């Protein structure tokens, strides 16, 4: 079984403020920009609506309105939050993290720690949950964030890594670690954070 980590550079304050904002214009803009994608999601989750659960558009509405939520379908609200993040943010290259095997994030984190980078962890982008009051999505997916300050600190730590230390690392792990640092660099350049979604 393979997994994916999908990162975005995004203003985390704006992202968080969207939850419970009652911003109907935002909801309509998301629906317009991602119409085909949302139609595809609905076709993939038609069993949810058949059971009386929310469509992806209903889930987006609930997240923006701050509820009501049906706890049985927490994963749908997780997907809705991801679409809100995609609207506000910009997708970052995840080719070193999609597809990936189980345990890959932990392996990359071990490599980062060996190099002295501890301010961020890629597992930290995967095993958390969305902000309150969005219900937990359970085991189907997870999400997490790196603040701007964490990204800046990670870059400082990365700059101190010697070429010799990098050469001692498994080349695939090094490549993934470099990708993660590029996420930090992009975030630091635009003064934003990173949000990640694991699936």
Automatic annotation (TrEMBL):
DUF7691 domain mapped to chain residues: 1-199
Pfam families xref list: DUF7691
InterPro entries: DUF7691
Top-level taxon: Bacteria
Name of the protein in its database record: DUF7691 domain-containing protein
């Amino acid at each position: 079984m393979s997994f994916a980590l999908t990162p975005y550079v995004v203003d985390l304050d704006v992202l968080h403020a969207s939850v419970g904002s009652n911003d109907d214009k935002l909801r309509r803009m998301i629906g317009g920009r991602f119409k085909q994608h949302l139609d595809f999601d609905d076709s993939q989750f038609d069993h949810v609506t058949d059971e009386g659960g929310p469509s992806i558009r209903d889930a987006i509405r609930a997240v923006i309105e701050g509820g009501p939520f049906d706890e049985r379908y927490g994963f749908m609200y997780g997907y809705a939050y991801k679409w809100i993040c995609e609207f506000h943010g910009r997708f970052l290259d995840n080719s070193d993290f999609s597809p990936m095997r189980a345990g890959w994030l932990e392996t990359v984190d071990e490599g980062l720690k060996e190099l002295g980078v501890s301010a961020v962890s890629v597992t930290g982008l995967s095993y958390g949950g969305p902000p309150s009051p969005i219900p937990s999505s359970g085991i189907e997916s997870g999400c997490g964030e790196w603040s701007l300050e964490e990204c800046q600190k990670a870059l400082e730590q990365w700059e101190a890594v010697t070429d010799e230390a990098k050469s001692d690392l498994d080349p695939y792990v090094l490549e993934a670690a470099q990708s993660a640092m590029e996420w930090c660099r992009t975030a630091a350049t635009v003064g934003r954070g990173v949000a990640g979604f694991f699936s």
